[in-house]
Amino acid sequence: MKVSVDVKAIQIARIKKGYSQRELAKMAGVSSLTVNYLEQNKCVPRPATISKICLALDLDITEIYCIS
Question: What is the 3-state secondary structure (H, E, C) of 7-68?
């Protein structure tokens, strides 16, 4: 079983809320580079980072995890 993060769902939620990557990063307490790399699928995010981003975007964490 492989677990991955649906980075597109995070990006879509951020845009729907009207947040820039920098604004989301500040709200989530992570670097803007982290948000940028995450949305470009250039890194494997830590679960704690995903939790912070989901909290900032009012997303249920189960909405962004993909299990295959």
Answer: HHHHHHHHHHHCCCHHHHHHHHCCCHHHHHHHHCCCCCCCHHHHHHHHHHHCCCHHHCEEEC
Cβ 63 vs Cβ 9: under 8 Å: yes
Measured distance CA(52)–CA(14) in Å, rounded: 13
Structure tokens of 14?
């951020």
Question: What is the C-alpha end-to-end distance of the chain, expressed in Å?
Answer: 6
Percent of residues, the chain, with pLDDT higher than 90: 69
Does the reported pTM lie above 0.85? yes
